Amino acid sequence: MLIFDASTVWLEIPQDIQTESWQQSQTIAIPGNRWQAYLNQVCLHTILPWLQEKSGAIAVEVANSIDDCQFWELVNGSAVVVGNLRLILIPVEAMDKQEFRVPQEWIDIPSWVGDYYLAVEVDADEQEIHVWGYTTHHQLKSQGQYDASDRTYSLDGNDLIQDLSVLWVMLQLSTEVTRAEIPALPRLSPLPAVWLIEQVGNAAIVIPRLAMPFTEWGALIEDDCRLQRLCAYRRAHARSAEISAPPRANNLGQWLQNVFESGWQSLEELFTGEPDLAFSFRQSEPLEEWLRRVKRVQLGGGLPTVLLLVMLKTEADQRRNIWVQLIPWIGEQYLPANLQLTLLSTEGETLQSVESSDQSNYIQLRRFKCPLGRQFRLQIAIADMTFSEEFIA
Question: In this predicted model, which residue has the larger pLDDT, 281 or 324?
């Protein structure tokens, strides 16, 4: 039988699932959609074995063969069938637990509707998944707030049931009214369906689900054959279309094999003859464990050159431990005032940022850990001048 051992669930993401999920997500052309696919695949393939292990005689399976990265660039979420009930898994990278947002497709497409909706937080840095609460379709439809701008239903986090042992009781009894009544979507004839697939099959369309009215979109993807054709169309278009490639990323895996992109030097090479300057930044532990590379950054506008210092080591769990600093150029005592160093996700989200004062002899980001293959960006900015570097862990 299915057993929940605690009121909330924490699951470790196996390394092989992280690696395979990342590799498969690379078939998607748009970085933001690629990351959404990665989160969904990690979520599904970590939670599914746990459900199977706990279910005993109750059958557990993925619904409608949606285990496809191209599907997840279209819609966030997965459906899992547990016995006669459907569980909808909605993953996000970070959750403040103030609200739970569910794409409209899981609420208003009749064949997609679930009984229970699980709020899943994916912590890629700590390699953990937290299932922190759940609700029903009926509650989302009747109490959720609909946002037309992104076509989601949201429910206040306090309205979710966070004790998953209650969910187990409901799954066993199967007597709770879980679904609200929703109208059927209009039928879509073959010719308009082909035209719509061609319209949103262009891999350069970042959010295809918002590119047409929901009634048309919902009718299109409710048909499983048309959904699969759309996924295949976008996959083929991504291979053939000439989409502008982002700047080449610095590959930290190659750094560990002593292969470096142009412009990166060792501290010893740069500070030949002035070794003390190489260690003018704060040290909290022996630096011999860290691979260190530095790059000159010319800000322009009469501002002095600064040095971007990236330090790297691999943890026992194979994640990259990364330490980033900005230090003054040789002969300069301080950094320019109001100089910002920012860590960004590939989607442009600010993850952390620091700014220099008028007497800063260095600034640094908090050290962070990345799973293999994770992409990020470092940005240096002052006034209207910006410099950035892309990295892959």
Answer: 324
